[in-house]
Amino acid sequence: MKRKVLLCLFTVLFLVLSIPSVMSASNTGDCGQNVTYHYNKNTKTLTISGKGPMGDIHSFGTPGRNNFYNEMETVIIESGVTYIGASAFNNCRNIKKVIIPDTVTRIGAGAFKRCFSLTEIYIPSSVTTIEDNAFVASGLVYATVPSKTVGNSVFMNCSNLISVKFTHDDAKIGESVFSNCSILENVILPKGITTIPNNLFKSCEKLQGFTIPQGVTSIGDRVFEGCTSLTYISLPDTLTSMGIGIFRKCTSLEVIKLPDNLTEIPQETFCDCTSLKRVYYPANLTHIGPRAFSECAGLIALKIPEGVVTIDTSAFYNCSSLSCVSFPSTLVEIRDHAFKYCGLQTIVLPESVTTLGEQAFGMCNSLTSVAFPNTMEKIGDSAFESCKSLTSVTIPASVTTIGDAAFEHCSNFIYVHCLGNFPIIERAAFNCGSSNDVIVYYDEGTTGWENHSSLDLFSLGIVLKKWEGEPDPIPVNPVFEEPALSTPSAPIIPQHIDPKPASNSSTPSLPSNPPQQIIPTVPESKPTEPIEKETSALECITESTAETTISETITDPTEETTTSETVTDPTDVTGKEPTSQEAVTESIKETLQETTVPETALSENGQPDSTKRTRLGVIAAIL
Q1: Which helix (H) or strand (E) holds 593?
Q2: pLDDT > 90: what percent of the chain?
Q3: Which residues make Cβ contacts (< 8 Å) with residue 106, sequence separation at least 6?
Q4: Residue 81, beta-bridge partner list
Q5: Which of 539, 532, 533 is nearest to 565 (CA)?
Q6: For residues 227 and 250, what is the distance between their CA atoms, to the nearest angstrom?
Q7: What are the φ and ψ backbone dihedral angles of 523, each rounded to 5 degrees?
Q8: 20 to 30 A Cα–Cα from 23, which one of 95, 333, 414, 521?
Q9: Burial class of 513 by CB neighbour count within 10 A (0 to 12, 13 to 18, 19+)
């Protein structure tokens, strides 16, 4: 009997203790000062009601304690609620539908972060602010954003996101909003936007074409970095500044025109753009930044425009196909590693250049000739290291220092002709690695050459001899045909779909049929004027210029038609009408026939010889 009584008491006690759990299992409670929640287990629907803001960080319960947290599929926020709390639905992986009333004015930071099943949401126009990370890694496919303020990384890592439209003309957008949205194809930016923030489209691998609207004056760092499908980009005439690495690793980009108001190509702008073949430079360009074109294997021929003063460190590093460069008369400085590992064959430096940086042309294995200007003062350390095809150079009288290892490992190097007094020759300057010492010729009347012992000369790896021949020939720039380019085709971009307001009884769904694919039109920044700043073919020009016109076709992929634009040679100052293509061809052929270049650099007495000192300027044109 006593056992039965005790058993009944224990049962009653157990039931009493279970009441809080039962109450908790009813899933009703507060989620703000004047806001409550109720979860219906049968419909898997969470309803939030009341007046005022929700609380932050899982204000309706703690994951693991509320059974509905990872179970609910629908969230209904009733009219009267003004704020969706920060991280309120963070990691609710099964939410498919959210109804937001027009009383909500703000969505908190991380509110729907990692809601992988949330594919569609209607954001009412009453929402003026969307805070940082609000929809990070959610399942959204289409989104229309009416808000005036959009925080950082709002849609970052949304791997299903295809299209987004901003409807507020003056919306302020944070950094990295679409970073790593791997299939994003279409974004309609606010009409009044003036600054493109950092990392906005970084690693959007499916983004094929983009037109930045007129009125934008600055673009932040790495905005399009890693957009590997990007074939077309239109920049507005209003653009005055760009951040670093904007187009880095855009491996499909072949052609780009930079607006004239830009004065600098910043660090790593086109680094690793392996398909880039043609760049139309700004008229006011003065500086090419560090690694600006590094690893651009598609560049073949390059004319750097007048006005450029500095080519910075590693600017064209490892452009392995770059065979010829024409330098402007304004160029003053070529910094360290600027053309290291390039495929250059001939270099003619302008009179304005006074120094070469360390390894400026190092490892250019195809380089056969170099012409130094009479203003050159120092050849930098390792400037031509391992240029294995280089056999000789002429050093002008202005050079006072030949840097350490300047011509080291130039294994086929034979001689140097110094036109001035004995310069400072630093350690290993001519440690070429060949079996014979390098012969250094000097001119009669110059000084300092007899004051060095054979031991000193041996340590430098050189042998001195007086020059008895004719002046050395000045290298002639070769002619290169313009690289053949295929016109970028217009990308097919899906039509943006505006999510519709959801009702309490409806269930979220995407259209049963795929959206019709159209080419979006963004006319604000469509190029309409002919490009007249630079011909697309390289013109390796030293002193003479020729008159030519080149027919260019640049396709705006936001349009269905292509326009042919005539590009006029910017070096043409004759004022004559452009000649026909056949006339240009005949003119170049006549020039080549009339020009003679010595077939050998040696005279009968065994000395390097050139009876014709010429400086030939040749235009590369499409024949």
Answers
A1: helix 581-594
A2: 57
A3: 53, 82, 83, 84, 127, 128, 129, 130, 131
A4: 52
A5: 532
A6: 5
A7: -75, -10
A8: 95
A9: exposed
What is the pLDDT averaged over residues 553-574? 38
Say what the pTM is: 0.74
**Residue type for position 62:** T
Q: Is the dihedral of CA 444, 450, 451, 454 positive or negative?
A: positive
* Residue 216 CA from chain centroid, whole number: 18
Q: Are 211 and 557 in contact (CB under 8 A)?
A: no
316 is written with which tokens? 């064209």
Instruction: Measure CA 361 to chain center.
Output: 24
Pairwise CA distance, residues 409 & 385, whole Å: 6
Bridge partners for 187 per DSSP: 164
Pull the structure tokens for residue 588: 């170049």
Q: Would you state the pLDDT for residue 266?
A: 97
- Which amino acid appears at position 269 of this protein? T
Ordered DSSP codes for 288-345: E-TTTTTT-TT--EEEPPTT--EE-TTTTTT-TT--EEE--TT--EE-TTTTTT----
CA distance 180 to 458: 60
- Evaluated on CA atoms 370, 373, 374, 377, the torsion sign reads negative
Q: Work out the mean pLDDT of the chain and round it to a whole number.
A: 78
**Residue 204, both tokens:** 């959007």
